Fold each of these.
Amino acid sequence: MKTLLMNIDSLVTVSADGSLSKTGPSMRDVGELTNAAMLFDERILWIGPSSEAKLHVSAEVEVVDCSGKTVMPGFVDSHTHMVFAGSRSGEFARRLAGASYAEIAAEGGGILTTMRAVREADVESLVDVGDALLTSALQHGTTTAEIKSGYGLDVESELRLLDAIGQLQFGHEARVVGTFLGAHAVPPEYKHDPEAYVNLVINEMLPRVREQGTASFCDVFVDAGFFTEAQGERILNAAREHGLRLKIHADEIALVGASTMAARVGCISADHLEHSTIEEIKALRDAGVVCTLLPGTAYTLRLPYPDARTMIDEGAVVALATDCNPGSCFTENMQTILSLSCINMGMSIEEAIVASTLHGAAALGLANDLGSLEVGKFADVVVYDVPSYKEIVYHFSVNHVWGVWVGGVEVS
Ligand code: NIG
Ligand code: FE
């Protein structure tokens, strides 16, 4: 069955004319068409003025009237930790009372609190947590989500997380991309010998992760109190040998050389970048590394916001993602992330849309197929019940989604 969306007030194509990103001033152009129409099956077949849409009406076409509506590509949330167990609301309350994320982590809380819950959890309960968050994300306009492991921190628990992510990949209506994040924290049993844990990640986890098959990416958390630049580099180089593409959590808590290492080893994206300076930004730009910004984390942890303005003005490829996780940012709502990026990082509405669609796809190596509404790309389409895309950021903290299609199939 084909679908024809007609009488669309605002059709935001995010067209990049065949390119996989829009940098500098071109990021301010979202390719908006007014009074437009779009025909699709699994992929987009035609886009044009509503006046020509009648030519495409037939018995095999479901027609949807989009008067007063905005149509955009689905969000590509390229950085989440949506599969976990337990809650950290107690630690959240402690942080509100003054404790820092780093202090709680150093006491054996934080990521390790979630690790203890995950080690106790069976795969079904992990799938249930991920399924609920992913469904909610989809209802808020996210059609593709990356999900990381990283709360198991032993061979079997990391594989169980990847198994849960794999079940969502095959069973959920949203698209799911898997990432192995064995180097998320040093587990307590290796507290006095972090190098031995790095060896475990390289020699025992990576071969099993490859065999298991869910993960396309390997990520590492290189930061003060977590992994060093040298440890991260060793893991990423080994991951590449196993056919995984590379990502990094960089410059979140402190500057410890993570971004420059990411540029050197050829990460597809460097994520966080709250503390990055012009030097890191230029290194990432020159190496073609996507700068993935997570303003929900800066908001929750009261960190300085990443310098999105300099990144965009210097021509880096900037993406936006939720970082959805139980510790540093518990939201799956990309509409909120757009608001935070505009209000607190000086991004324009148009830049935020490009960053959360096309550049999210670029951060996952999927911009050929996803992230914009162009003939030939997958029909991952979200209809919002507002007459202009500007309303989505302007009228904030409510869900404007009216309908969602993934690969041409209506899912919400
Ligand atoms: O991206 N920085 C490391 N990892 C997550 C936090 C995970 C957690 O606190 O559970 C992040 O912020
Ligand atoms: Fe993260």
Amino acid sequence: MSKSPQSFLLFPPGSVLGILGDGQLGRMTALAAARLGYRTHVFGTSAEAPAAQVTNALTCAAFEDREALARFAEAVDVVTLEWENVPTDSLAFLAERVPVRPGASVLRVAQDRREEKTFAASCGVPTTDWESVNNAQELDAALVRLGRPAVLKTPRLGYDGKGQVFIGPTKAAEEAWQALGSSEGILEAFVDFACEVSVIVARREDGVMAAYPPVRNIHRNHILATTHVPSGLPPEVEAEADAVARRLAERLDVVGLLAVEMFVLKAPDSEGRRVRMNEIAPRPHNSGHWTIDACACSQFEQLVRAVCGLPLGETVPHHDAVMENLLGEDANGWATLLQDPSACLHLYGKTDVRAGRKMGHVTHLAPRLSGGPFLLGEAKA
Ligand code: AMP
């Protein structure tokens, strides 16, 4: 019997949560689901993947495999995802058989930077200036309008700085276009930001929302290096970031989580605004890993609660926190990291070590002071 996708159902503990994607976000979602008494069924591509190692059941197949998707739908009560690039056709196919949260309409926006920015504008949320460019001539013309420096990006499937070309004062449009190596692009005006923040908001099907506080993110080589809580930003900037995230979650009608990455300008614009949306992700986010150790309810548990219709958990942290990503060989330093008895170490079970690959993270906690940002290392400067 097919399960109605329309119904406002509660999925109680004991239900089977289907998770599309088998990376570390799926792993931590499955662990949080298990804590609440749920069973999980991961749909991914490898039996060795981080989430495959901790789930009750596993389907290894391509996301386009309709037979595998149909079997998966039969085996689970509700579906969520840890990767926003699941084909929307596959999501729609699943949604005919089982509730899928978030749904295909949300992914259609989140999969394409042009759609994201157009959607943000329709909600009155500012982004940096941008233009669609589909060849070197269009790029050249757009550079005249937007100015330099600028950032050329692939509209789809870019992450951690992949699919991005920085265009400084002298780089030729032709050279930048060749470096992108894509048939379509988006040119963004460079934002000379004061800092980067993100907000993760959870939303249930009935519209109830809960947001974690804005956190400050420091990137190295376009990859998130550390997340700092509290952000140390003035309350009015935090309120602006929070309002942007809530508005987007509501207007997108997200059920689950929405992570919103934003730039904070050095000075307010002509309308008094300090925040520019950069991108959104309708899933758990790297900048929310600190919530596992510093909140009563982590972003992963919050996702399970939102998707299953349970009451949402506390989002006010009980500690200040710094989360440091462990990239590539960093994770081999686990023995040293564990010398600090209060370090909260998380390793994702990946065996293939590659430079820049997210292998784990470590969270350091401090009693809430909350006067300023809790910074480590280079971020202290
Ligand atoms: P993204 O994949 O868009 O999140 O970009 C990764 C990182 O590159 C961001 O977190 C920023 O640190 C930097 N970046 C991306 N786009 C811009 C921009 N338009 N202006 C300034 N920095 C940017």
